[in-house]
Structures are given as C-alpha cells and as structure tokens.
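User: Structure please.
Assistant: Input sequence and predicted structure:
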Amino acid sequence: PIGLMFSILGVLITGFGLLTVSDTTMYMKSLGINMNIIMGLVMLLFGLLMLFLARKKKSINYRCKNGEENH
C-alpha cells in the first residue's frame, strides 16, 4: 500500500536529518531549519494515517461481508 511507502521514506528522510543535524552549511539555504527532519516526520505521519485508514476500510468490508450490522 501507498501508506507503507510513505512511512518507509519518512523514516529514511528523518534518519538522514538526524544524522546530518550538525552540518550547518547544508541547511543555510533553508535559513538553518533542518527540513529533512520536518518533512520526514510529515511523510511518516501521512503514511501511518494512510495505513490506518486502509486497515479500517478492510475491517469494515470484512464485517459487511460477514453480515454484521453497525458498519
């Protein structure tokens, strides 16, 4: 699923941002803000949200197929 891809990329980019946090020259273009950490966390949260919604939809579809009410 697409959520897994965003989650993996988010972890990788956040990790890169954490490893390069001491390199101040790299972040001069972004006014000293470590955008790798910020965007990595945003991608990770988005990916986790997508995984949660996919799992929720799968659960609802499973309950509907088995004839359970309250879906």
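The radius of gyration is 18 Å.
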